Amino acid sequence: MLEISGLGHSYGAHRVLDGIDLKVGEGELVTIVGPSGCGKSTLLRCIAGLVPPTEGKVVLKGTPIDGVPDDLAVVFQDYSRSLLPWLTVRDNVALPLRRRGLGKADRRARAVEALSSVGLEDAAGKYPWQLSGGMQQRVSIARALAYKPTLMLMDEPFGSVDAQTREDLEDLVLQVHRAEGMTMLLVTHDIDESVYLGDRVVVLARNPGRVRDELPVTLPADRDQIGTRADAEFVRLRAEVGRLVRGVVKESEAADAAGTADAPVEEGGAAEADASVEEPAKK
Ligand SMILES: Nc1ncnc2c1ncn2[C@@H]1O[C@H](COP(=O)(O)OP(=O)(O)OP(=O)(O)O)[C@@H](O)[C@H]1O
């Protein structure tokens, strides 16, 4: 479905991504996690055709991406800038459907259906600024759903909402993913979230950004905020992802490098590790 090969990107002389190879299968929900500044958003923008990669290629359903593909929807962190304040919620959701060549009645019907799937059918006639932040992000998700994209990209979609709303939205994404079987790629800086949502977690390293490791998430598809997070497999995975994100070389790698079976070694020193994980939500 999505195949990224040898992808590299530089902003001028600043090398941000290097040699990224990644495949996403039909119906998969893949999460991408990594320290701040490792190039997660840049990678997503390259996939969305918003930023042309300096090297390598992105192929979606057999077609190389060289501009924004028709069949893609993106949910950004900053919902307040992605919804148009002068349009009602329903019209915000319906607007991109013009690209699908649908008539007005069909666009409205699809918008109402998508709003109802995110629990916002009663807000259809309101304006975005009359809704809470969490509700506005639901509208953004509904807009992506209504579009019925081949691939849904999400860039830190819950980075600007409170903790309770974040959990509700995470569950909404899981529910939609299961119900629609939609292929999704979600970028987050949150280690727990990457495991909770993912069928597979891709961990990026930085300077330059590259794939450090990929971990299959062997948790049952049915997840819930309390039970899943207490599951021993969840605890093991979050610790593993946490070690990778913090730049701690896995014991096996450390042993390989040192020729011994010593304790894990930190890459770049503790200062770098701390800075990368403690940094707040972003941008
Ligand atoms: N348009 C741009 N022009 C120049 N440099 C950029 C641009 N966008 C991002 N960068 C730089 O590229 C690097 C990677 O940024 P990016 O936003 O992709 O990382 P990230 O992993 O998403 O970071 P964070 O988690 O903090 O949002 C950073 O050093 C950033 O300053």
Automatic annotation (TrEMBL):
Gene3D superfamilies: P-loop containing nucleotide triphosphate hydrolases. The keyword Cell cycle does not apply. CDD domains: ABC_NrtD_SsuB_transporters. It holds the Pfam family ABC_tran. Residues 2-231 form the ABC transporter domain. SUPFAM superfamilies: P-loop containing nucleoside triphosphate hydrolases. GO terms for molecular function: ATP binding. Keywords: ATP-binding, Nucleotide-binding, Transport. The keyword ATP-binding applies. InterPro entries: AAA+_ATPase, ABC_transporter-like_ATP-bd, ABC_transporter-like_CS, ABC_transporter_ATP-bind, P-loop_NTPase. Residues 251-283 are annotated as: Disordered. This is ABC transporter ATP-binding protein. It comes from Actinomadura nitritigenes.
